[in-house]
Design goal:
The model has no long low-confidence stretch (mean pLDDT 97). β10 and β11 form a beta hairpin. The two termini are 24 Å apart. The chain has helices spanning 23-40, 55-64, 74-82, 97-106, 119-132, 155-164, 188-211, 227-230, 249-254, 337-340; strands at 18-22, 44-45, 69-71, 87-90, 111-116, 136-141, 170-176, 218-221, 238-239, 263-274, 277-280, 295-297, 302-307, 312-316, 328-332, 345-350, 353-359. The chain has ten helices and 17 strands. The strands form two sheets. Strands 1, 10, 11, 12, 13, 14, 15, 16 and 17 form a nine-stranded mixed β-sheet that branches. By secondary structure, the protein is of the alpha/beta class. The chain folds into two domains: 4-19 and 259-359, Lyase, Ornithine Decarboxylase, Chain A, domain 1, CATH 2.40.37; 23-245, TIM Barrel. α4 (97-106) crosses α5 (119-132) and α6 (155-164) crosses α7 (188-211). The protein is elongated, with a radius of gyration of 22 Å.
Length: 367
């Protein structure tokens, strides 16, 4: 239940567990990401909303220079369109009659492009769009070594692009790919080589499309773990990195992101069974611990942390009386994408005071 009366009051008065974002850090991270992509690399910024979930922060990014947003699901795109975002890429396939009907009707609210990797799916979107009198931009998803979705680079991708071209209800707008295999490479030169190995075949595919008379307006790629490299790769036109505006331990420790963490979870100590053990009200239903253990702030050295559904258990290196029962703890989430989706709102805090409450309107929009 949102604590709307908290605006203007200290964040320490919020009931816990609760998700906070430090406004100055968020604003600085947005500006730094925009500076790298838009001003230094000269590419367009289309930040991903899968871990942000609110049009309010999308509009902060748009004001900083983003051209639109990227969404994982059609439901997210519907929320962003309803929130006034006009240029949207659904970076996954939209399949089945029900979802395709939603996609083509959404074109009357916003310009929504979608990734495709299947001939029949293209025909189904085309028919539905023609029936409604709209046109949907399609980006061929190219497999850049991730081996998830996507068409193989070269002739297979060119064939799908040709299949799109000349139809009335869809338009070939370009290519999209995800250089995931470069994520965990942190040494700068090795990361550059890994990004190039993933994206060079995509650029060669774009050249083949252009040689066949198919304009490639968009080559969309890049995430928070690679954007400072992929934005500068020749041929890239836009980058989808978004979660870096919050940052987290995975991005920093595993992917090499150099942005401070803006998001924290505020929790309450519920038990002190021993001088070295802290029990709090923030467990797995409050913050994700699957890919990186949340980091406890403002307390001495931690020997071990573990989380069950509703509890966090912290084992300290040294015995201490503080913090006491009912006192507050702060954690940095291990992964913001899988932490944000556990909450209904984020509380924006400046200098310790709640400045705004953002409902996470796209939370739970899995369809």
């Amino acid at each position: 239940m949102a604590q709307w009366n908290a605006v203007g009051r200290p964040a320490t008065e919020l009931d816990t567990p609760v998700l906070l974002v430090d406004m100055p850090t968020l604003e600085s991270n947005i500006q730094r990401m925009a500076a790298t992509m838009v001003h230094e690399a000269g590419v367009q910024w289309r930040p991903h909303m899968k871990g942000i979930k609110t049009p309010a922060i999308a509009h902060m990014m748009l004001r900083a220079g983003a051209v639109g947003v990227t969404c994982a699901k059609l439901g997210e795109a519907e929320v962003m369109a309803a929130g006034g975002v006009q240029d949207i890429l659904v970076a996954n396939q939209v399949v089945g009659a029900r979802k395709i009907a939603r996609l083509v009707h959404l074109q009357r609210q916003a310009d929504v492009a979608v990734a495709v990797d299947d001939f029949d799916n293209v025909e189904q979107i085309d028919r539905a769009a023609c029936d409604l009198g709209v046109c949907v931009r399609l980006l061929v998803e190219v497999n850049a070594g991730m081996d998830r979705a996507g068409v193989e680079p070269g002739a297979p991708s060119l064939a799908l692009a040709r299949h799109i071209a000349g139809r009335q209800g869809v338009r070939f707008a370009g290519l999209t790919a995800w250089e995931m295999l470069a994520l965990r490479v942190t040494e700068p030169e090795a990361k550059r080589r890994a990004v190039a190995a993933a994206l060079d075949p995509v650029m060669e595919t774009a050249a083949q499309c252009r040689a066949a008379g198919l304009p490639v307006d968009i080559i969309s790629t890049g995430g928070t773990g690679t954007y400072w490299v992929s934005a500068f790769h020749p041929g890239v036109t836009e980058v989808q990195a978004g979660g870096g505006v919050f940052s987290d331990l995975v991005y920093r420790n595993q992917y090499g992101l150099d942005l401070p963490c803006a998001m924290t979870v505020l929790s309450t100590v519920t038990s002190r069974p021993t001088p070295t053990r802290i029990i709090c009200d923030a467990g797995k239903k409050t913050m994700s611990a699957d890919s990186e253990t949340p980091q406890l702030l403002d307390v001495g050295p931690v020997r071990a942390s573990s989380f069950s559904a509703e509890h966090g258990k912290i084992e300290l290196e040294n015995a201490t009386e503080s913090p006491r029962v009912a006192e507050l703890l702060r954690f940095v989430p291990g992964c913001v994408d899988t932490t944000v989706v556990l909450h209904d709102e984020i509380y924006g805090v400046r200098d310790g005071i709640v400045e705004t409450v953002w409902p996470l309107l796209a939370r739970g929009r899995l369809q």
